[in-house]
Amino acid sequence: MKFSRSYITAFASITLIISWFLFNSFKSQNIEFQPTETIKTEQIPTVLVKNSYASNHEVNYKIFGRTEANRVVTLKAETSGLVINTPSKEGQILDTGQIVCRLQTDARKAKLDQAKALLELRRFDLKTTEALVAKGFKSKIQLKSQMAEVDVATANVKQSQIELGNVNIRNQFNGILLKQIAEIGDYLLPGQSCATVIELNPLIVVVELTEQQVEKVQLDQNAEIELLSGNTLTGMISYIEPVSNAATRTFRTEIEVDNSDYKLRGGLTASVSIKSEIVKAHLIPSKILTLNTSGEISVRYVNTDNSVGLSVVNQIDEEPNGIWVTGLPDEALIIIDGQDYVSVGSIVEPKFTNSKNI
């Protein structure tokens, strides 16, 4: 049986191709199953740390408050009458007893003159009665009756003097005329307002203390106050509210500040610093503060076994180069840089720094 030459060539080509595929397949299997040694290494994160030691530091509460007048009083009429003069101007500094409103006297002066004349008459009658009693022409009962009439006449004079004096509505303390309510021509009845006067010396700075702060603050304790204008003042705590505000759970606290020159005004924003107890605290950079899972302010540090620890801290004071906090161990290896990339309990490689600028 003879095969054509073309068949023989095709068969040879197919055999060659199959052999080539089988050879390469065998070779790749040898490579695939050749055992190789792989080494997996876990890299330990590096953090920048610094030794921090607790020291005694006085707790310094910093609270925002406001300035207020010591008192605001509305002067009112004690008698009725037409306003004929308002000698003081709004914003004017008033002395004690200075007239703010003057009412028309009407017949009050005449009533006082009449009361004085009647008193003179009763006194003359009393002297006459005393002489007659001494001579036995009148009884002692008549003398006592005459003495009572003198007392009544004296009281009438006093009443008339008060009524006449009430036409002058006077300021009762050193202060500033805030608002002139009654004007010339107004008719005032007893109890109606004449003017409003405020007392700005001493000036009162009001702050709200929390339940924790109020336990550490005492009456007559000094406080430092800084106004937005940059003025720095010193005052003394004069009042601590005995019952907290039901809405805010805070206690109104008042600080008296000398304002004898009346340069300070009410309604100013004030930053108040009140020093309290001495505690163990750390001075740390503010940038290392973080939050725990509960949202509390915390600081990460490295334990002796190079594991990461976390402590909740409380800020008690601040300085240009850092903040003072409590809550850390007395000696702590705090993480200065890299704290946001490690978790509590993880092992780290601490790298120390002694830079004072961190």
3D structure, described in words:
By secondary structure, this protein is of the alpha+beta class. It has 4 helices and 22 strands. The chain has helices at residues 5-32, 108-135, 140-165, 211-214; strands at 46-53, 55-68, 71-76, 81-85, 93-94, 99-103, 168-170, 175-180, 187-188, 193-199, 203-209, 222-227, 232-240, 251-257, 269-284, 290-291, 297-302, 308-312, 314-319, 322-326, 331-337, 349-352. The strands form 4 sheets. Strands 1, 16, 17, 18, 21 and 22 form a 6-stranded mixed beta sheet that branches. A hairpin with a 4-residue loop joins strand 12 (222-227) and strand 13. The N and C termini lie far apart (99 Å). Residues 31-40 have low confidence and may be disordered.
* Tally of DSSP β-strands: 22
Helix content: 10-25%
What does the main sheet amount to?
6 strands, mixed
- Known CATH architecture of the largest domain: Beta Barrel
Mean pLDDT: 87
> What is the count of helical runs?
4
Order of helices and strands: HEEEEEEHHEEEEEHEEEEEEEEEEE
Rg on CA atoms, Å: 47 Å
Shape: elongated
Question: In the residues, how many domains can be counted?
Answer: 3
Notable characteristics:
OB fold (Dihydrolipoamide Acetyltransferase, E2P), Elongation Factor Tu (Ef-tu), domain 3, 6-stranded antiparallel barrel, 358 residues, 6-stranded mixed beta sheet, 3 domains
